[in-house]
Structure formats: C-alpha cells, structure tokens
Amino acid sequence: MRRLRHxxxxxxxxxxxxxxCEAGYPATVERRYLTSVAGELPPDQCLPxxxxxxxxxxxxxxxxxxDLERVPx
Length: 73
Prior knowledge:
Layout lengths: L1 E5 L3 H13 L4 E4 L18 E4 L5 H12 L4
Antiparallel strand pairs: 1-3, 2-3
C-alpha cells in the first residue's frame, strides 16, 4: 500500500476514495478519525489520508485526482 495524498476533511477523503475505486484504483481512507486529537498532535499530521492498495496505480490515480480538482465550473 502507498499513500497518495492528504484530504482536507473526512468527507472529501471518502469521495476521493470512492471515485478512485470506481475508476479501478482500489483506495482506502486512513486516519479518518485522527482529527479529534489535533490539539495534542500537529494538525498537519491529523488529516485523513488516501492510500492505494497497489503501488503501480500511484501515477494514474494522482493524475485522476488532479483532473478532478480542475473541473470547469
């Protein structure tokens, strides 16, 4: 497994993971509930993370998420 990126919150993380799974890149959300300890740990270490099951999907999955961030309004 390999970490793809941090998400700003748990809802966005789950949406990203679902979209990646639908595209054929098995992904999971890790550290989903770690935001509750943000005062005891640095906040940047408490964000939810998207992890890919297969390392060879890293480049394609990253490109997919980058494309989703630039969808025309």
